[in-house]
Amino acid sequence: MLMHQVHGDLYHRQGKAPSNFATTLLAPDSGVVQDMLKDPYNFDFLTLSDRMAERDVHRGLLSHMRDFLTELGRGFAFVGSEYQIELNGREYRLDLLFYHLQLRRFVVIELKPGEFEPEYAGKMNFYLSLVDDQLRHPTDGPSIGIVLCKSRDRLVVEYALRDMTKPIGVSEYLHTVVPSLPEPLKSSLPSAEELEAELVRAADDLQASASDIRDDN
Q1: How many Cβ atoms sit within 10 Å of the Cβ of residue 55?
Q2: Residue 13 to residues 40, 69, 88, Cα–Cα distance (Å)
């Protein structure tokens, strides 16, 4: 863990994310929670194309949960993905829900593959209200939200968070980019469906050959 954080330049990323913790949390909680955040988060264990969608990042983090938890830091316990909360007969889904064992509070993470938009803060504020009302135990601290974006303008983030009542932080994330294939090359390669069909045929042929060998013996 120590070597991972040293190579990941943790010192220059820890506690650097813009947030409204100073106005929504009491001291010393505000400083402790602020130090929990990083900016940017390093997701180099993901290899995604330059045209990734939110679901691609989501699936990648779930399939590398151990690496994801290591990058988040100590104390995070995974609660659920696409966590469902109902309000007045309508369902809402949180991208990722964690519980922080040391801070004793829920942490909601929303993933955005593009640039931060001000409306993301309002949506997170709403989600945190739902979590506090439906999941939070009386002994828990206020739930916090982290919006992870591919990029963000710090000044836009500060204005978006200024009048929010729930504690929210916004961080960028980095990942390994696999360039998209040129269109002419794409057309010359088999599709995922064709590859799957070919693998099925190869498995059938292998099974038939094995059956023939057994019959000969």
Answers
A1: 11
A2: 6, 16, 40
| Mean pLDDT, the chain cut into blocks of 10 residues (217 residues total) | 48 74 93 91 75 74 84 92 95 96 96 93 97 97 95 95 96 72 57 66 70 62
User: What's the pTM?
Assistant: 0.73
Q: What is the 3-state secondary structure (H, E, C) of 129-168?
A: HHHHHHCCCCCCCCCEEEEEEEECCHHHHHHHHCCCCCCE
Alpha-carbon distance of 193 to 197, in angstroms, equals 6
